[in-house]
Each structure stands twice: as C-alpha cells, then as structure tokens.
Design goal:
With about 60 residues, this protein is mostly loops.
C-alpha cells in the first residue's frame, strides 16, 4: 500500500465521533467524592465454630 491510500480523502466527510463527547483535556476538574471514614470495628462477630453471626442477631450473651 502506498502512503497516499492511508490518508483520508478530503472530499469525504469525516466521522466526528460521539456527539457531545469531550476529550479529557476539555473536561472540567472533578472533585474527589467525600468518603466517610468509619473506625475499624475489629474482628467480625463469629461463634465458637468460626461461623459469622447473622446481621440481625442479638449480641448479648
């Protein structure tokens, strides 16, 4: 193939891409989402056999 066949024909309309799309340089800067920090609650609640306790269980023993 010649280099001539690789260039687009100026007489043909070119595909503009997705309408309304913007390249990353055109996008406004975005703030990082706020994430609420939750203190680590330690080890999960497990019974003597190591099974996880149901979410709605009563934690009194």
């Amino acid at each position: 193939m010649s280099a001539e066949s690789e260039r687009p024909d100026p007489d043909l309309p070119q595909d503009p891409g997705i309408p309304g799309s913007k390249s990353p340089e055109q996008l406004p800067p975005q703030d990082e989402p706020e994430v609420e920090r939750v203190p680590d609650s330690g080890l999960p609640d497990v019974d003597d056999e190591g099974q996880m306790a149901p979410e709605n269980s009563v934690h009194e023993r």
